[in-house]
Design a protein that fits this description.
The complex is a heterodimer. By secondary structure, chain A is mostly helical. Chain A has helices at about 1-15, 15-30, 50-70, and strands at about 40-45, 45-50. The mean pLDDT of chain A is about 85. The relative contact order of chain B is 0.17. Classes of the chains: A mainly alpha, B mainly alpha.
Chain lengths: ~80, ~475
């Protein structure tokens, strides 16, 4: 019952335009990565970790677009 | 021998494109909506590829590797995230544009902006900005084609012959099939770009002893290729992320594509897949550029732009190198044909149609005529390019970003046309000042203060006019 209620709450939050503006702004902020600017660690000996981070952010962005259309629906507000 | 293989591969590719053009012509309805917008009936896969391939110019294919040779992986960061984030515009701008286009029959971006605000002056200004910053791009496409053919054939086909040949071919299939053919060829070209870049990377890396070994060589030559510090600043990083999000959808050939899906779902699905594809596709030429620094160090700025063909020349068989470079050809054509059709539609609908008597204004025929005229203008520039053309191209992204605040406001608010005109004029004035290096940029790209100022002017002018109108002080003053 609690699970249903929290699921309903999440869906209700997901229906709000402000929530998605916040989520996409957060993704933009995370992509700036200025707190990690000097990093030069490599993954598997060739790919800088910060490049991997940008790739993952883009994949999350893709998932967020999918969730946005599923939950928010893209109606006019 | 090389020239024969190259010309054979290009002929096969062009034949397939031409078949698509002829088929597109056969199934078309011979109307304006069909010619310029494929009757607004393109499905999800075609919409995705036409949005993607149109945005991937020859620069994506050739220029990315050259820039990565100089800047390393930082270049990936500058290009990839902003372009992926731009997919949000498919919803914010694209969905609204699609709805208005379907409801009111708009064909061109300036037509939408002008008619929604009821201002022909704004429509012309909007068109002028789009034309001024896109026409030079259209003009440099035959130049790129000429250089690519000349380089692929080892100079056996002279530069201008290559430019003429490609221009004639593009005229032929755009003339025949319009948007439908262009969209279909975009699918072919998009798939070619992705597959061939991937094959190119695999072949080069395997000849360099594997991905780690190739990178170790590059690291030994220049460790800075793997870092941002010392290569790019946070302000520039931020600027590019914003710039791509703002300017990409303002390219007329991309803006116009928001009119063509048969449903909103196509745009939504495209925005979901777009970041996934960008994240991988942009990485391929960047990796080639970075490992190219290790394999062929010491190239100058201009030489570095040829690092991709140089690497292929050194590490791939002739036929494969030629095949992969035909991907560069596809990248160039997918942008050039779309620019040509989009510019033709604007000249026809926004400039010539309104001044012709109703009976003589046959947009379908005019559109075809403008395709030919504009392609020849591009070719004329390619014959003897003026120096100013490169200056305009350099500032094109910033110039087009100026249109974003106006577009957003027209789509979401009931905004005053004079406020839009003030905003664009302010942007252009600042662009000129920044070109003369007068105002400070505070470490950002000039596009940031320019767009901020034009947005501010838009808001302030709009509020002022409403204030004055409410008090009946502005009866006879409108745009």
């Amino acid at each position: 019952m609690t699970g249903c209620r929290s699921g309903w709450k999440l869906r209700s939050i997901g229906k709000k335009k402000e929530f998605w503006i916040l989520v996409f702004s957060l993704m933009f902020f995370l992509s700036m990565d200025f707190w990690n600017w000097g990093s030069d660690k490599l993954l598997a000996g060739f790919l800088p970790i910060w490049v991997l981070r940008i790739i993952v952010i883009q994949w999350i962005l893709s998932l967020l677009f999918l969730s946005f259309y599923k939950i928010y629906g893209g109606e006019d507000t | 021998m090389t020239a024969i293989i190259v010309l054979l591969l290009i002929t096969v590719y062009l034949t397939i494109t031409l078949i698509l053009g002829i088929y597109g012509y056969k199934v078309s309805k011979k109307t304006v909506q069909d010619y310029f917008l494929a009757d607004r009936k393109l499905g999800t896969i075609v919409v995705f590829f036409t949005l993607a391939a149109t945005n991937f110019s020859a620069f994506t294919f050739l220029g990315f590797a050259g820039s990565a040779y100089r800047m390393g992986y930082s270049f990936y960061g500058l290009m990839a995230f902003g372009t992926s984030f731009m997919a949000i515009s498919f919803y914010v701008i694209g969905r609204k544009v699609w709805r208005l286009g379907k409801k009111k029959g708009y064909v061109t971006p300036p037509e939408l902006i002008g008619k929604e605000t009821g201002s022909y002056t704004l429509r012309l200004l909007f068109m002028a900005v789009m034309v001024v910053f896109t026409l030079p791009y259209l003009a440099i496409q035959p130049m790129s084609a000429g250089y690519v053919i000349s380089s692929l054939t080892g100079g056996e086909v002279p530069y201008f012959y290559g430019a003429v040949f490609l221009t004639a071919f593009i005229i032929l299939y755009v003339f025949l099939g319009g948007m439908r053919t262009i969209a279909w060829t975009d699918v072919l070209q998009g798939l070619m770009i992705m597959a061939l870049l991937f094959i190119g990377l695999v072949v080069i890396v395997s000849n360099l002893g594997g991905i780690s070994s190739a990178h170790t060589q590059a690291y030994a030559v220049e460790p800075g290729l793997f870092q941002r510090q010392g290569t790019v600043t946070v302000q520039i990083w931020f600027s590019y992320a914003v710039l791509w999000s703002l300017c990409d959808p303002m390219f007329p050939q991309l803006f116009q594509r928001f009119f063509v899906p048969k449903s909103e779902k196509s745009l939504k699905r495209a925005s979901v897949v777009y970041p996934l594809m960008i994240s991988l596709l942009f990485l391929l030429p960047v990796i080639i550029g970075v490992i190219g620094r290790g394999a062929i160090p010491g190239l100058g700025v201009q030489e570095a732009d040829s690092i991709l063909p140089m690497m292929l020349d050194r590490y791939a068989p002739v036929w494969l190198a030629a095949l992969i470079m035909s991907g560069g050809f596809a990248a160039f054509m997918s942008t050039a044909d779309s620019q040509l059709l989009s510019m033709s539609s604007m000249f026809t609908r926004d400039l010539i149609h309104p001044i012709l008597p109703e009976k003589k204004a046959d947009d379908y025929k005019l559109g075809h005529l403008m395709v030919v005229i504009l392609a020849l203008v591009g070719l004329a520039f390619a014959y003897d390019p003026p120096a100013s053309i490169f200056t305009i191209v350099t500032w094109a992204f910033t110039g087009l970003a100026i249109l974003y605040p106006v577009t957003f406001s027209v789509l979401y608010f009931d905004v005053e046309p004079l406020a839009c005109i003030s905003s664009i004029s302010t942007g252009l004035l600042l662009l000129a000042l920044y070109h003369l290096q007068i105002p400070p940029t505070f470490g950002f790209l000039p596009a940031m203060p320019i767009v901020a100022a034009s947005s501010f002017v838009l808001f302030i002018t709009d509020r002022t006019m409403i204030f004055l109108k409410d008090r009946d002080l502005l009866n006879s003053f409108s745009a």
